[in-house]
Write a structure and sequence with these properties.
Blueprint (H helix, E strand, L loop, with lengths): L12 H7 L6 H27 L1 H14 L15 H11 L13 H28 L3 H22 L2 H5 L10 H7 L10
């Protein structure tokens, strides 16, 4: 980062000495802390979601392998358009089965596999909604509030210019559970006949 301060002047020597003890000015460190806290939150959500999707991932993989073709599941679904839900789930979760499964034409076996997928998806959605309701957003939102309150002041002190400090400043909104739910949605679930 190129310094905007003329640190060579005698009146700025002390400031230069102080800044040399830190890796970046306070406003930069504050910005970094806010972004890192949000990244940690997203990482935690992503890892937890991925872990809890394991059973759904297995179930959609087994169902696809048993069906052989998505079209063979159409008679089991309340609406044929719901095949798109299954296809999208399969693409999103990218299941990898450890053993090959031979396709079947048995409606009973396919219905059972579809029911297991639906049950697993419903359990996941219930757990995921509960996780999002209970997740603590205090740290992230406190850091964002501190950023909104002190960032411009710290930047103005460092740059010695209110005009420069305000350039490209965007305050952070509080992180909400709705925002996390949009980023990490529950699963769409098909309906059996």
């Amino acid at each position: 980062m190129e310094s905007a301060l003329p640190l060579g002047r005698p009146e700025n020597v002390e400031l230069g000495h102080l800044l040399s003890h830190y890796d970046a000015p306070a406003f930069v460190r504050r910005d970094r802390r806010v972004r890192e806290a949000f990244d940690r939150l997203l990482d935690r959500c992503g890892r937890q979601r991925d872990e809890w999707l394991d059973m759904v991932r297995i179930r959609i993989g087994v169902l696809h392998a048993l069906a052989g073709d998505w079209g063979s599941l159409a008679p089991l679904l309340a609406y044929e358009e719901q095949l798109h839900i299954l296809q999208q789930l399969h693409v999103t979760l990218e299941p990898k089965l450890r053993v090959p499964i031979k396709p079947t034409s048995s409606p009973r076996i396919l219905r059972h596999a579809l029911r297991e997928l639906i049950d697993s998806s419903e359990r996941f959605n219930l757990r995921w909604r509960q996780f999002l309701e209970e997740i603590d957003l205090t740290e992230v939102n406190d850091l964002r509030e501190g950023y909104n309150r002190y960032y411009l002041l710290e930047k103005e002190c460092a740059l010695r210019s209110a005009r420069l400090a305000r350039q490209r400043f965007q305050p952070f909104a509080s992180v909400t559970r709705e925002e996390l739910a949009a980023r990490f949605p529950v699963l769409a679930i098909p309906v059996c006949k």
